[in-house]
Amino acid sequence: MIDKFRRRKSPGLFFQLVLFSTLLLPAFPSMAQTGGSPAADVAQLNLGLQGYSIGKKLTRAQKKTAGENPVPKAYAGTYKFVDQDLVVVVEKKTDTVLAMYKRIPRADKKQLKAMVADLMDRFGLPTAMAHEKIVYWAYNRHGAVSEDDFERAKKNKQIPGLGIIATVKLNSEIAITPDKGKDQGNNKASRSSAVQQPETGTVYFIVTSDPLVKAFLANQ
Q1: 126-132 LR contacts (CB < 8 Å, sep 24+)
Q2: Domain that holds residue 161
Q3: Beta carbons within 10 angstroms of residue 219's beta carbon
């Protein structure tokens, strides 16, 4: 189903915030700064997987899982744990979920397509796609931001007006779009580029909130 997305040039709208040790936390720039509690605003979205939602506190059962399955080298003021293959990052003071991610090293096309399909089943159609290797689902206080609304805001230079407070991001080292047919190989450069495309690579997705993370960092 990913073939519904048209090829796009990079919108140049993304930045990377280095956080949680080696984990990169990419998101949309100029995300909304709300007047209320970032955790409360994000929590009401119920955004996450496997019963975990960013902005919400762990339940007693989830804290038990965290204690039994810790992940080392957490960022200062946080702890990490794994539930099946999902890594959850939690603020130590409040047990509030800050982020969650899944990473598959040396993933092949089949695994990539399965991850994309699963995320689309969970979160619906994406908000934006970049470089044929990055897919974003963006959310404001009212819910998911549609592709049309995002494109319109980008065209009118009104991205901050969307009030984005949370994102789901999929990043792949191999192209997400389908392989081009052999009959499209008249252009030698295109054929050369296609040959150079890796068959496997690291694939990961992350669910996070820029305002939530910034509020956490401000309190450190």
Answers
A1: 126/5, 128/8, 128/11, 128/13, 129/5, 129/8, 129/176, 130/8, 130/10, 130/11, 130/14, 131/10, 132/7, 132/175, 132/176, 132/177
A2: 2-218
A3: 10
Task: For the beta carbon of residue 211, count every other beta carbon within 10 angstroms.
Answer: 21
Single-letter code of the amino acid located at 194: A
Q: How far apart are CA 159 and CA 36, in angstroms?
A: 21
Nearest residue to 38 (alpha-carbon basis) of 163, 215, 189, 164: 215
Query: Residues in the chain, how many?
Result: 220
* d(C-alpha 193, C-alpha 178), whole Å: 14
Model confidence over 110-165: pLDDT tens digits?
A: 999 999 999 999 999 999 998 889 999 999 999 999 999 999 999 999 999 999 99
- Domain count for the chain: 1
